[in-house]
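Protein in question passed on here:
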Amino acid sequence: MSVTHGKMGLSLTQEILSHLGLANKTAAWGTLGTLRTFLSFSVDKDVQRLLKAIAGQGVDCIAILDVLTNRSREQRQLISRAFHERTQQDLLKSLQAALSGNLERIVLALLQPAAHLDARELRKALKGSGSAEDVALEILATRTPPQLRECLSVYKHNFQVDAAEDIKSETRGILRDLLLALAKGGREAYTGIIDYNLAAQDVQALKQAEGPSTERMWVLVFTQRSPEHLIRVLNQYQRDTGHELEKTVPAHFHGAACVALLSLALVIRNTPLYFADKLHQALQTLPCPASVVARMRLMITLERRMKEPPISEGLLVSPFSILVRLCSI
């Protein structure tokens, strides 16, 4: 099928922007998020609109984008089931047959259950080259315990192997230890009680764990302590040494291990800032297959992690900005 309006170029990008909830509007904090439950949701109307969008001579990409990117993941799953009940056809396969390129990839990610998307991306990161410290760590470090358990369960079901086995075979050194520890989901829960003694002990341990064969202490502290406790550890470390712990990491770790530890530190300090930074970097990346996949995954991840776009140092990022960039490449 052909695509309405021809190639996804500047004119279509402008048209997409005109449909966005944040376009040309001033919004109060608390109303900025665009990936949220659609209040006027009607599954029948959405199914009818999608059917119309993929029927006939051309494909109405704007209609497809307007429906799928303005509904929550739960609402999209309802649309998918209703589409199948009405047509006896799979919505995802129908859209894949009508679309191509980056738009097809986006639709695939939008319609997949979250755990399935995570499992697929985790597998690709572990089996690919040079992305375990980025994609795999992001998934294992930022998902809630229930989300992580579901992801790992889907991983085993779909690929007939535990994610831990792939981590062991595909990574090495401290990166392997970090990923294995995160995959176990053994991080302590915050009890509301501040343990100043343990914080002081962790700071001292990290200050002393700066030589060879001391990686285990870094893994233990970074993967087992609660985020609330770790923030106090990071702050106390800076008070004691006069510099952030992130300044110490590159002096003692290199390559993937360094990247993983720095990413974990940022996740612990400020998870929204971590995603904002990744979004900003992704949008600056020149078009290439790897960056396209990364940007698509970031958009979907942002949907789950934050109800509002991250704001940091004047950076306001709408999840749709990635969508527009993807569709215009």
